[in-house]
């Protein structure tokens, strides 16, 4: 290559080096056409032209990529900032925050972006949950995603306020180094709502459990006075009240039949008030609505009426009362009384408590009515028993005494006539009647108070009862009795009275020839069976005026037992009582 070409190329590359965008022109005309030198320089000229075109194209693409990257970065930043979740970028090595969005600043409880950059998560999480940070770090370092709930704390308020956050974290590379992105969401409202729901469910469960317990408890006794005490005990336990009383309607009067927790110097049990004294109170209660007076000392119409109705009691026995709640006792749509509940604290009772107590009151009203019916049935049974004993005395002992009187009178007449030889017959007659009367009296006394039951036990008492039945009524009796059971006297007395009532019904109604009594102990239960071959009856029918069957059922139920009756016309009858050996309804 000659010196001219070398000089030309040197100048060309020098100009390109000084200004790559310049397009130098090679003076091709300085060389002859088709000369090797001109062809060589023409090749260089084409190469430079293509290079400049490529360089221009690369420059345009670079500018476009740079613009797109700027736009994408702005988009990512907008998304990063617009997210309502807190976005935190942490250095994987030490966990410190290197980037955060506005939501993250807000959730982190800081006042500025600069304040949170460089912080460790330990400064944001409650000490109780620091162990979760370690779990998160170990998970992320294993290149796995993390999800969990943590208790954070805002230390920029006094006192610091804890709150709940949900954390999603993923490892990624940022600025060429390992980092992780944590998406943090404030879930305090959701957690508190769930906790509130759990509390409400727990409260509802407790209420239902309480109602079930109360239902079982009030159904455990048919005696009125113990029942009233049970109801009041449950009310005090449920409402946490200071005092409670049961007021029942009697005509146009209201009577406090039982009270508990009442303090003061004047007794309230059996106090009576005219219904009119309660005026608007009674109208609201009669409409089946609970009534709450938050403060009976306040100067409001309802409190004024309460003070007027209670009179001097509010200064003595009820001096402690500040809040009062009245719950109607409703039976078959009618108000039969009121549950009066008091507290020494103003505003102690809520509408929720009133609704729960109203449910209790509905159960209590039914239980009170059942107890009243049971008392009436007991009174009727006692009256029927007295009438039966009176008939027995009239039919047996009274007749025997009348015969003794006649025989003695005849003997006296014969003696006065001097007919001593004829005295033997009337005197033997008198002796026979006296022995018969003595036997009858002993049998009646045994029915009233079977000393054998108390002294010798249930088995001997039942055996003797069957012997008396055989002698007095000329029946064929069969007994199958187990060994003396180890149970309370109350259980023995209940079984004896059931047997006595069943045998009495057989004598009175069955026209039976054979009676079988069976007693056995099986699986913690005493089973008494009384069977006859008499006329039988419709076991599903009703028997107005005959309380024996109802009385037997009530006797069996009280200690926790059952009584079944099997019978049909012409097929005799079988009565079976089952009582638990241990445990009884109180």
> How many helices?
15
Counted up, domains total 4
Helix content: 40-55%
Structural class: alpha+beta
N→C terminal distance? 130 Å
Can you tell me about this structure?
InterPro entries: GAF, GAF-like_dom_sf, HATPase_C_sf, HATPase_dom, His_kinase_dom, PAS, PAS-like_dom_sf, PAS_fold. The structure is a single chain. The chain is 50% helix and 21% strand. It has 586 residues and is of the alpha+beta class. The chain folds into 4 domains: 3-77; 89-186, 2-Layer Sandwich (Beta-Lactamase), CATH 3.30.450; 202-374, GAF domain (Beta-Lactamase), CATH 3.30.450; 453-586, Histidine kinase-like ATPase, C-terminal domain (Heat Shock Protein 90), CATH 3.30.565.10. Helix 7 runs antiparallel to helix 10 (351-416). The longest helix has 66 residues, at 351-416. The mean pLDDT is 82.
Short description:
The chain folds into four domains: 3-77; 89-186, 2-Layer Sandwich (Beta-Lactamase); 202-374, Beta-Lactamase (2-Layer Sandwich), CATH 3.30.450.40; 453-586, Heat Shock Protein 90 (2-Layer Sandwich), CATH 3.30.565.10. Helices cover 50% and strands 21% of the residues.
Please supply descriptive tags for the structure shown above:
586 residues; alpha+beta; Beta-Lactamase; 4 domains; 6-stranded antiparallel sheet; 15 helices; 16 strands
Would you spell out the secondary-structure blueprint of this structure?
Elements: H1 3-18, H2 36-82, E1 86-91, E2 97-100, H3 102-108, H4 113-116, H5 130-141, E3 146-154, E4 161-174, E5 177-186, H6 188-218, H7 224-239, E6 243-250, E7 253-260, E8 272-274, H8 279-286, E9 291-293, H9 301-310, E10 323-331, E11 334-343, H10 351-416, H11 424-448, H12 451-455, H13 458-473, E12 476-481, H14 489-510, E13 514-522, E14 525-532, H15 548-557, E15 562-567, E16 573-580
Parallel strand pairs: 12-13
Antiparallel strand pairs: 1-2, 1-5, 3-4, 4-5, 6-7, 6-11, 7-8, 9-10, 10-11, 13-14, 14-16, 15-16
Helix pairs in contact: 6-7, 6-10, 7-10, 10-11, 10-15, 13-14, 14-15
Domain Histidine kinase: 388-583
Pfam families: GAF_2 (PF13185), HATPase_c (PF02518), HisKA_3 (PF07730), PAS (PF00989)
InterPro entries: GAF, GAF-like_dom_sf, HATPase_C_sf, HATPase_dom, His_kinase_dom, PAS, PAS-like_dom_sf, PAS_fold
């Amino acid at each position: 290559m000659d010196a001219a070409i070398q000089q030309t190329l040197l100048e060309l590359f020098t100009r390109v080096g000084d200004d790559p965008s310049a397009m130098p022109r090679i003076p091709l005309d300085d060389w002859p056409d088709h000369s090797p030198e001109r062809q060589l320089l023409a090749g260089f000229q084409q190469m430079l032209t293509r290079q400049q075109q490529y360089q221009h194209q690369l420059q345009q693409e670079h500018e476009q990529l740079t613009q797109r990257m700027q736009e994408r970065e702005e988009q990512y930043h907008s998304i990063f900032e617009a997210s309502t979740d807190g976005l935190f970028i942490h250095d994987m090595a030490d966990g410190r925050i290197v980037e955060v969005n506005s939501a993250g600043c807000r959730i982190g409880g800081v006042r500025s972006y600069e304040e949170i950059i460089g912080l460790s998560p330990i400064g944001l999480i409650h000490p109780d949950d620091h162990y979760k940070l370690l779990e998160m770090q170990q998970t992320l370092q294993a290149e796995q995603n993390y999800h969990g709930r943590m208790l954070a704390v805002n230390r920029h308020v006094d006192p610091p306020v804890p709150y709940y956050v949900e954390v999603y974290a993923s490892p990624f590379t940022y600025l060429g180094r390992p980092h992780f992105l944590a998406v943090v969401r404030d879930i305090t409202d959701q957690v508190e709502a769930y906790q509130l729901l759990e509390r409400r469910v727990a409260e509802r469960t407790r209420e239902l459990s309480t109602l079930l317990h109360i239902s079982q408890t009030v159904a455990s006794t048919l005696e009125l006075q113990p029942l009233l005490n049970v109801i009041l005990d449950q009310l005090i336990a449920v409402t946490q009240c200071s005092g409670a009383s049961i007021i029942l309607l009697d005509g146009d009067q209201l009577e406090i039949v039982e009270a508990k927790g009442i303090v003061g110097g004047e007794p309230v049990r059996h106090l009576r008030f005219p219904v009119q004294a309660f005026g608007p109170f009674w109208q609201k209660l009669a409409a089946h609505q609970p009534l709450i007076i938050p403060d009976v000392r306040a100067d409001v119409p309802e409190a004024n009426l309460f003070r007027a109705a209670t009179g001097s009691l509010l200064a003595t026995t009820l001096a402690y009362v500040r809040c009062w709640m009245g719950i109607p006792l409703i039976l078959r749509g009618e108000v039969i009384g009121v549950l009066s509940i008091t507290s020494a604290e103003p505003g102690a009772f809520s509408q929720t408590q009133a609704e729960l107590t109203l449910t209790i009151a509905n159960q209590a009203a039914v239980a009170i009515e059942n107890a009243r019916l049971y008392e009436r049935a007991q009174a009727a049974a006692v009256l029927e028993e007295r009438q039966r004993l009176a008939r027995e005395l009239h039919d047996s002992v009274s007749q025997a005494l009348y015969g003794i009187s006649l025989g003695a009178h005849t003997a006296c007449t014969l003696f006065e006539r001097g007919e001593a030889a004829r005295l033997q017959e009337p005197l033997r007659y008198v002796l026979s009647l006296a022995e018969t009367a003595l036997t009858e009296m002993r049998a009646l006394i045994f029915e009233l108070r079977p000393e054998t039951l108390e002294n010798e036990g249930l088995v001997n008492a039942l055996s003797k009862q069957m012997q008396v039945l055989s002698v007095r009524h000329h029946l064929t009796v069969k007994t199958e009795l187990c060994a003396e059971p180890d149970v309370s006297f109350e259980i023995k007395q209940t079984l004896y009275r059931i047997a006595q009532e069943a045998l009495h019904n057989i004598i009175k109604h069955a026209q039976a020839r054979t009676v079988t009594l069976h007693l056995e102990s099986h699986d913690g239960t005493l089973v008494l069976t009384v069977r006859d071959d008499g006329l039988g009856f419709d076991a599903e029918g009703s028997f107005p005026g005959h309380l024996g069957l109802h009385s037997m059922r009530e006797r069996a139920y009280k200690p926790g037992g059952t009584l079944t009756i099997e019978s049909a016309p012409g097929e005799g009858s079988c009565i079976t009582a089952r009582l638990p050996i241990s445990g009884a309804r109180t």
